[in-house]
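hey so i finally got around to running the thing on that chain from the lab meeting. sorry it took forever, my laptop kept dying and i had to restart like 3 times. anyway pasting the input first so we r on the same page abt which one it is
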Amino acid sequence: MIQLKPLAVAFCLSSIVAAVPANNAKVVDLPIWSEDDYYSVSFAVGTPPQNYRLQFDTGSSTTFLDNAACTPKDCPNVSGFPRNMYNIPQSSTGKFTGVNTTNTYDGGAIAGPVAQDCFHIEGLAPWSQTFVDSTLNLFGATAADGLFGLAFPYIAANGTQSMLQAMGKQGVLAEPKFGIYYGDVNSNQTMQGGILTMGGTRENDFVKEGLVEVPIVKTNYDGVEYEVWKTDLASIKGSGSKEAIKTPNKLVTFDTGSGYIQVSNKTVHALYESLGLGWNYTLILEDKQILYCDEFNSSWSVTFGFGKEGDRKVTLYGDELAMPGFPAAPGACWPPFSGAGGDYNIFGTPMLKALYSTWDWGSFNPAEFKPSVRFGKLKKHKPVGSQ
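ok and heres what got predicted. didnt touch it at all, straight out
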């Protein structure tokens, strides 16, 4: 439990308008918790502080916790994770802002009043954070107490600030960036030792050689705002094909909240064929072809060409894409790619776990954003299934 000094509480109450002195802005490493393929980090909220585990999501920008009075009907929890729900009367620094809001995601929605309270991370100055105190949360399977979005401020729920924006405005973080290392796979096929770095990145600690920088594009309806971490996907090349699959004018979202590598339905069949392994996506969907984990090895790969020209290339090898536990047969692995059900592409944790990634706004000032994501091969890659 974080112990607050009176000065820290007073600062948090006034921090919407007062920034931390620049020499106090820091970089912090947060251990990543892995629970049923949901990835979260710990924060303390309120006065006295209560601990919460929040899923980090690069596909959204809103922070939310469940209201303590939310019913099982409106805030179902089938995850098996015992959620700690936020009770504003128990915090002397918590208050409602008078705004009610809703936010819709792929696969769920939240709604409720906007609250404001002190957030704390060991080693950082506390900051004042607005968030949704959810009286409706349809993410029943999420193994965490709530969620915080790491996308761009433009899509934050009405009346809230994204966490990175709030921390930057109040001078808590050294730089407008973060880095993700998901950790190693242990003998139980779960991730351990992961770190989310906020205010800086740790590529010197985790990256074997170099980083591939991918520019992020503006994607709102008139093309003037950044929304999520999205870039151009120009090509896909499997190691069993001489020619790359061209995907002109297609975009891809890098999303820590997704457990899939999804490509458009128009592309997914050709992607499987390009691997040269005899895998057929139609047969996989019909349960007529099972992929076994011993087929996932470094003898084959897929290369994604990012950027307008497709010159920002990232290669993933078969052993990096193995996901054991497919229930169809003992020793089976989950299919590495799936159709998106539409003409879009989402690259989630199956890709991100195999790499170290840095995510940089370029500035805390939205008018000066110049965002990019960089990917690097890990110094110590432990193939899935190894001890």
